[in-house]
Specification:
Strand content: 15-25%
Number of domains: 2
Oligomer: single chain
Order of helices and strands: HHEHEEHHEHEEEEEEHEEHEH
Radius of gyration: 20 Å
Length: 329
Amino acid sequence: MDKFFNNIWYAKFNIFSLLLLPFSLIYFIVITLRVYLYKFRFFKVSKFKVPVIIVGNISLGGSGKTPFCIWLANYLESKSISVGVISSGYKGSSKKPIIVDDESMPLVVGDEAILLSQKTSAKIVSCGNRVEATKFLLDRFKVNVIIHDDGIQHYALDRDYEIILINNSKLFGNGFLLPAGPLRELKSRISRANISILMNHESNSVYAACSVNKGIQNSITKEIKKFDQFKNKKVHLVAGIASIDNITFALDSHEVDYIVHKYEDHYQFSGNEFNAFDNDPIFLTSKDYVKLHTLDNKNIWILLHEIIPNNLLIEKVNHDLASILKYEN
């Protein structure tokens, strides 16, 4: 189903998009009414005693929200700012706010929450109800700021700063709202954010950040290799994330002979998916590996990547957040 809609949304012309346009009109009416009901406080909007930063997007699919939140949390903590992060717990089983730590399970709190906990020293809470999760975190921890991984469309949550990420390889697809296109909101929504960032884009003229692959690490031996060391070798790239474009680009650049095994975003791997791979290397993202960390398989290699923002973006974030969070610029 995901593949079907992606073929519709990112094609120059598709008859299915035209057939779905009446439903997009209904969707537009509903979301517009919802926005105004929150704007004029017919629906409750919760304001908190510490600044709230929302990181999100206006289209379906991966734009690097969690890796960017990891970078932002670590950057602010380097400024001696105590950070809390709310993750939606998507595909997790918990219905109530839960603190994420080393003992947490992806099936309970979601894979993104685990990754945030592993890659930062921030206080992480997982819950689909962002207002309740924020209250829960503030009741238990003293933090200077709360970052919400995703949440642009959660208007019940007041926010002090909005960051919208745009996937540079896909942009806005055919430009239509759901279900005819991939947009959750109109493109004009970007103008209301404090900053919009092109992800996986190399430029110093706009706010941009790249997802840089730093090599691969063996899950058992912890040995780290460069992609060049797998040149012309048969590799299985297994991924349960929304977009693998930046990964395949890196592998192509280093002439790695790979076979893609693409699963739906947040797919719950069991390890049985690798039974037919013999002794060929298996490349996994960090987000997928958190669900397989107990698997004893020496053929698994974890892709190491991080977000690298350009100087223009760092200057903008530093200028804006130093004012909001009262730290030395």
